[in-house]
Amino acid sequence: MAITLVNPAGLPETEVYRQVSVASGTRLVFIAGQVAWDADGTTVGEGDLAAQVEQCYLNVGTALAAAGGSFDDVAKLTVYVVDWAPEKMSALLEGISRAAAKLGTTPVPPATLLGVAALDVPDHLVEVEATAVID
């Protein structure tokens, strides 16, 4: 495995992500921000943050597989949520959990969560981009 995830002493430990990823692989893979589109370009889960998060993570998983990797190879995630507020955290975590169950993994690499005013399509509530390192 090219990525080792760590919660070093002196930094808060969270269940949602690890604070540090150490990469030892040889290929960098940059996944464009994935939105809640299915393979046909139809928005999944209009108005449903959990459903859209799930689809975004599944799309990241598809992109990783195409590059010969999986969520185990992800060094960093960035999650953009429209009109972010702390009360949206449960829907965000629900969507991640549902995607993790389908992917058979727990995606916990270091992550940055950013609230944004809008995304490219008004129906999109979330976008997820990833950087992976693959052996």
Automatic annotation (TrEMBL):
One of its GO terms (molecular function) is deaminase activity. InterPro entries: RutC-like_sf, YjgF/YER057c/UK114. CDD domains: YjgF_YER057c_UK114_family. One of its GO terms (cellular component) is cytosol. SUPFAM superfamilies: YjgF-like (SSF55298). Gene3D superfamilies: RutC-like. Pfam families: Ribonuc_L-PSP (PF01042). Belongs to the RutC family. PANTHER family: 2-IMINOBUTANOATE/2-IMINOPROPANOATE DEAMINASE RIDA (PTHR11803), PROTEIN HMF1-RELATED (PTHR11803:SF58). This is Enamine deaminase RidA (YjgF/YER057c/UK114 family). The lineage of its organism: Bacteria, Bacillati, Actinomycetota, Actinomycetes, Pseudonocardiales.
